[in-house]
Write a structure and sequence with these properties.
Rossmann fold; Isoleucyl-tRNA Synthetase, Domain 1; 15 strands
Length: about 500
């Protein structure tokens, strides 16, 4: 299947600050790089929102027929605290605190990352490179930057000369910052570092004797700079210039700004044509932070083991919640918001289930399926606007319910089109899945009470009451099994 020529996507490009029509470098093929996690801790909910946002983009491009190479890295070395050029590697610090090897830290939290994203039903990327697996490429890139005149070595560390780069380009163009302003704001700290200028950033850092994560290089034992890793891995698998570079809004500066500088220094072109940034997630109107206790992890939402939500919420409901806001908008999660999303998700899935047994008629009334279908595409074509898409999906669900109640009608041809379109957008594009049926935890006690009443009836040899409870529960899809010690239940599939 080729790429749909009917659908033209508009993408908000952070580099230009405007929506632009998406035209890939290579016909029918898309190269997309997204900055992955630094695996020194459990993946937090804000990270998950970013990866779900790019999962949607990945899914939609694939749905349109593009062959997408989606590269998302694992940062398992070289990311210093607070994104600075000095200090302790986050993974090495975690290893020291937990008294384990750095690679144990990496393994532990990489597994957590993959498990969590799998629960959210995100598709795996095409390639998932690691920083430690690309040390050779990073050393080579440093050499190229030095040869181009933009890198300099000081006592075993190598830095990028931002002022030299700014002579021929514009450092800060992605984030809208001017180098002159940055210099003015940091003038007081000049002379306190081995760097020529405070704005210069590390390409390669000399490893101190106590530093565990170290590799030999032409400049001595050390480890790569965080910004360098992404440039090395993105260009290796996607070329010096590719279509889309994405990540969280917090990476725009300095990380992505530095990536642009590194890319332009060695290839004279910006690494990506479209820069896409997902916005942050807040909790109860405030920034998430472990230090303040205003924080919740994905598994704490799923299990209900937290002090913020009244009860557990499933991964599918949590994903649905995130898709109800545009990826460029700040999204606030709260108990009320999650409850509303759960209701909406149930309504959507109920509509899909009704669809399977909907009766057809000679004409369709009250709904233009073809027009509605294009409205769904229009929403996604407009910078992947999932909230508008979801609103359109609910329009279809309302029509399905009206048809089921006999207030509207639909032809067999329109029903097939409606069914396939809903399936495509709900399941394939939004990645929402019907969850395995389970008893609501609020009804758990009621069900246990009925089982207890039935057991009492059996003990009294009141088999009429016992059988009635069993049969009525069976009609509701709850099957009782009497064991030697207790009565258990299963749900009809």
């Amino acid at each position: 299947m080729g790429v749909s020529t009917e659908q033209r996507i508009q993408i908000y490009n952070s580099l230009s600050g405007s929506k632009e029509e998406f035209t890939p470098i290579h016909d029918q093929m898309v190269g997309m790089y997204v900055c992955g996690p630094t695996v020194y801790n459990n993946v937090h909910l804000g990270n998950c929102r970013t990866f779900i946002s790019f999962d949607i983009i990945f899914r939609y491009l694939k749905h349109l027929g593009y062959k997408v190479r989606y590269v998302r890295n694992i940062t398992d070395a070289g990311h210093l605290e607070n994104d600075a050029d000095e200090g302790e590697d986050r993974i090495a610090k975690k290893a020291r605190i937990e008294e384990i090897e750095p690679m144990e830290v990496v393994q532990k939290y990489t597994v957590d990352f993959h498990r969590t994203l799998a629960k959210f039903n995100t598709l795996p990327p095409s390639i998932e490179p690691t920083a430690t697996g690309h040390i050779v490429e990073q050393i080579e890139l440093v050499k190229q930057i030095i040869d181009a005149g933009y890198g300099y070595e000081v006592d075993g560390s190598v830095y990028f000369d931002v002022l030299k780069f700014n002579e021929n380009s514009a450092y800060g163009k992605l984030s809208g910052r001017k180098l002159e302003d940055m210099i003015h704001n940091t003038r007081e700290t000049s002379g306190q570092s081995e760097k020529r200028n405070p704005q210069d950033f590390a390409l390669w850092k000399k490893a101190q004797p106590e530093h565990i994560m170290r590799w030999p290089s032409p400049w001595g034992d050390g480890f790569p700079g965080w910004h360098l890793e992404c440039t090395a891995m993105s260009t290796k698998y996607l070329g010096n210039q590719f279509d889309i570079h994405g990540g969280g809004m917090d990476l725009k500066f300095p990380h992505h700004e530095c990536e642009i500088a590194q890319g332009e220094a060695v290839s004279n072109c910006s690494p990506a044509n479209y820069w896409i940034h997902a916005n942050m997630l807040t909790l109860n109107g405030k920034k998430m932070a472990k230090s303040t206790g205003n924080n919740i992890l994905p598994n704490e939402i799923f299990s209900g083991e937290n002090d913020i939500m009244d009860r557990p919420f499933s991964p599918a409901v949590t994903r649905f919640f995130m898709l109800q806001a545009h990826y460029r908008s700040v999204l606030d999660i709260s108990n009320d918001a999650m409850l509303a999303s759960e209701k909406g998700f149930s309504k959507l899935m109920h509509g899909l289930s009704i669809l399977e047994s909907l009766a057809t008629a000679k004409e369709t009334t009250g709904f233009d399926v073809a027009k509605w279908k294009q409205k769904c595409y229009n929403a996604m074509n407009d910078d992947f606007n999932t909230p508008i898409l979801i609103a359109n999906l609910f329009d279809a669900v309302k029509f399905v319910q009206n048809t089921n109640d006999g207030r509207e009608s639909i032809t067999i041809g329109d029903l097939d089109e409606l069914r396939s379109t809903l399936h495509n957008f709900v399941h394939d594009v939004l990645g929402l899945t019907q969850e395995e049926q389970k008893v609501d935890h609020y009804l758990e006690n009621s069900l246990n009470l009925l089982i207890e009443l039935r057991n009492d009836a059996r003990n009294r040899k009141d088999f009429a009451t016992s059988d009635k409870i069993r049969d009525e529960l069976a009609k509701a899809g709850i099957l009782l099994q009497d064991g030697a010690q207790e009565t258990t239940y299963t749900l009809k599939k």
